[in-house]
Amino acid sequence: MKLYLTLSLITLVLFCPLCPAPASGAELHNIPLEWKPTETISALDAIDLTVFHNVKFIVKPFNDFRKRPEEIGKNVEKRGTNRILLVTTRDNVAAWLTDRFAKILEEFDIDVVKTGGTLVLDADIVKFFVTEESVYKADVALKVRLKSPSGAVLWEGMTSSNATRFGSSYKAENYFEALSNAAISAVHALLRNEAFKQAVQKNK
User: Fold this and answer.
1) Three-class SS string for 58-124?
2) Which of 18, 57, 173, 201 is the 20 to 30 A CA-CA neighbour of 112?
3) What residue spans define the domains of the chain?
């Protein structure tokens, strides 16, 4: 019995340092998405929003053309192994981001309606991902279309942004904070895009 215990302890000491383990104790798989921005609209550069006065936007459901839509992040920190720790969600990213996009517009005091809108917005999700190494770096990129109520495309273009967060390793809240901040900044970038604003002005 003593010999068995001794061998077991030796095996544990020898091989445990080689076993990669997430810092949080469990891998972040199939987690629900959470909205957790740490930045506010007021902290961003001021934008002249005059062109959006008397415009009511309908935000149509986004499309998600990413190859692996369930993946929203990865940890690539060096832990004595080349293993990458993925972060995945069970939620529909396209539906979630459509809802958040509309709510961010409203935070900028832009009218968003379900029916009877002046103009229509929809988008393809190109990037929605966090890479964690020494910091959490989120990238959000959308291919946005401005349409008439009848469906004619009036403008099409990219809006994107990134956000960086510091925090404990492999923590869900840090991934959510980075993604939320990047989403806000991506909408901010769209609203300051002169080509987009000119298209709104011309067709409102």
Assistant:
1) EECCCEECCCCCCEEEEECCCCCCCCCEEEEECCCHHHHHHHHHHHHHHHCCCEECCCCCCEEEEEE
2) 173
3) 48-203
Asked if 93 and 73 count as a contact pair (C-beta separation under 8 A), the reply is no
Is the Cα dihedral 86, 92, 98, 100 positive or negative?
negative
| Tens-place pLDDT, residues 16-74 | 333 344 444 589 999 999 999 999 999 999 999 999 999 999 999 999 999 999 999 99
Q: Which CATH superfamily is domain 48-203 in?
A: ABC-type transport auxiliary lipoprotein component (3.40.50.10610)
Bridge partners, 132 (sequence order)? 75, 136
Residues 164/182, Cβ–Cβ less than 8 Å: no
Burial label, 98 (beta-carbon count in 10 A; 0-12, 13-18, 19+): buried
